[in-house]
Amino acid sequence: METKTLRTMKQTKRGLLFQSEDIKVVFNEDATTENYLKSHFIEGESSFNLLFLLSPNINLQASDCGTQFKFTKNQYILHYSSSENRAELWTEDQEVLKYLQIQINYQYVFNLIDPHSNTESAEILKNMKDNNFIFLHKQTPPNMTVEMHMILKEISGYSKKGVMQKLFIEAKIIKLLILIFEQFNEKDIEEDLSKTPETIKKFLDENYHKNLKIEEISKIIGINQNKLRREFKEHYQTTIVDYISELRMLKAKKMIINKQIMIKEIAIECGYEYVQNFTRAFKKKFGVSPEKLRLG
């Protein structure tokens, strides 16, 4: 880690908090009375880097890509670097430049997660290598949780050395990774839930002609019955039953003009087991029976 600034009037608190064969933890805090402050850090070859931005308005430019990021206070990224990479951080307008970097060897994470053990582990490692943990939603870096803050405080304040420090740091880093995976998993669940009404509608559009009950739809889609009804009605201002009936009647009206198709066949095609139920629903919708509409 090397740190420099274009101005000489500054105060720096930085240092290596911990280093082993697999893990490196570095804390940096620079302050200046001038207008521009810059810092550099190195991402090692085949390493995952957790970067916690602990002061506001930090800009980041990595040498391995042309993208520049700007962070607000208490955001973080989890970045994989296949080769040694130099990144530049800077802030302006007399801001403090404060961050904590945790570098983890790829093989350590590989052994920890064991992607060959199950598909979930393989997916997590793939997401890590593909740098899918840089943005939580669209172009927004994730925000640190209270528990993450507490862990960083514990890491920076731990005073023991030797094997106890190694075990302590590794345990805390594993906990950080768990929190990150949980945070992104919650994001995925939220996104899935936001698409719940569309998912239900798509299923109904494709299966309205089948004799399905709400209980069966609930099991197939994997959504609680009450939630299924509530989400759909809130989004489309109609019930699932009424929507299915509407789709069936629209199809029946198109088919009824074809006199070659028997009324019973139309009823079955539209999802009605009994012709009487079909006739009743048709008359309620259009004011006349299927037979009278066909006769004109």
TrEMBL record:
GO MF term list: DNA-binding transcription factor activity; sequence-specific DNA binding
Is the keyword NAD in the record?
Answer: no
SUPFAM superfamilies noted in UniProt: Homeodomain-like (SSF46689)
InterPro entries found in the cross-reference section: Homeodomain-like_sf, HTH_AraC, HTH_AraC-typ_CS, PchR_regulatory_protein, Tscrpt_reg_AraC-type_HTH
In what residue span(s) does the HTH araC/xylS-type domain sit?
A: 198-296
What keywords would UniProt list here?
Answer: DNA-binding, Transcription, Transcription regulation
PANTHER family membership: REGULATORY PROTEIN PCHR
Q: Which protein, by its recorded name, is this?
A: HTH araC/xylS-type domain-containing protein
> What organism, scientifically named, is this protein from?
Chryseobacterium piscium
